[in-house]
Structure formats: structure tokens, C-alpha cells
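Appendix C: a fully annotated inverse folding record. The material below is reproduced so that readers can follow the format used throughout the book. The structure is listed first as C-alpha cells, followed by the designed sequence.
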């Protein structure tokens, strides 16, 4: 059995077994940007941020290598300009602005899977939260 340092749902550090279903990834979600041929030689800032995001997720690839059904929660950090009252109202409320959920899912699948053609079932949600993080769980029948 393999152990991995990760965080649980409360954000506290724990060691998780690779046999467990899900895992919190302490990474702020970033949607996959639309890339062009020009991005090969002139990297835009959004492409550089996306590549750094993919590199941050590489240590978790082995954990999700054999899952073909995934449940994902994206926790988007609230803007610093919001008042404390608004932050309290919006915590764990549905996030209905950009980045789009399909781009968030594409970013995760491209980061965690070499070939994402094996994925046939995805449940994805996005919420406002204090800190950015991602929860991913393999769905087992």
C-alpha cells in the first residue's frame, strides 16, 4: 500500500492510503485555456499558469490512474474585495461565473490522465470557498 500526504475535507493534513476513494488536492482550480499554435513559441500568462497547475497535479496521477468514473468538487477562492458579510453568505454556494465548469474538468483530466478517453462518467460541481482546492473521488458501483 502507498501512503500520500494530502488533506482531508476539513483541510487538516493527513496521510491517506491510495486505496481510499477520494482526495483533497490543495491546488486552486484553473480552467484549461484555449490554446493556439502561437502558444508554442510565445507563451501567454494564462498558458503559463495552466502549465504550473498541471505540474502541481502530477504527484496525484497514480492515485486516479485506474478510475473511469469521477466525482469532482472545485472550490474557487472568493475575491479579497468582498466584505466579510458577503463571504459568509457565499461560502459553499454554487459558483456561477468563470471559469466554466467544462474547462475546469478538462484541466483536471488533462493533468491526471494520459488518455482521458477511458472516462465515461463525470459528476462535477463548483463552489465558492475561502481557499482554492479540488476534491476528486473515484465513483465505484
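Designed amino acids, in order:
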Amino acid at each position: 500500500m502507498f501512503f500520500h500526504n494530502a488533506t482531508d475535507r476539513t483541510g487538516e493534513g493527513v496521510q491517506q492510503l491510495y486505496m481510499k476513494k477520494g482526495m483533497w488536492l490543495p491546488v486552486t482550480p484553473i480552467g484549461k485555456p484555449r490554446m493556439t499554435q502561437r502558444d508554442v513559441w510565445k507563451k501567454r500568462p494564462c498558458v503559463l499558469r495552466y502549465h504550473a497547475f498541471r505540474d502541481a497535479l502530477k504527484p496525484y496521477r497514480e492515485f486516479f490512474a485506474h478510475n473511469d468514473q469521477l466525482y469532482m468538487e472545485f472550490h474557487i477562492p472568493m475575491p479579497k474585495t468582498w466584505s466579510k458579510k458577503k463571504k459568509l453568505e457565499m461560502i459553499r454556494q454554487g459558483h456561477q461565473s468563470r471559469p466554466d465548469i467544462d474547462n475546469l474538468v478538462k484541466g483536471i483530466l488533462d493533468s491526471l490522465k494520459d488518455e482521458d478517453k477511458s472516462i465515461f462518467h463525470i459528476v462535477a460541481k463548483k463552489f465558492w470557498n475561502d481557499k482554492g482546492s479540488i476534491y476528486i473521488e473515484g465513483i465505484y458501483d
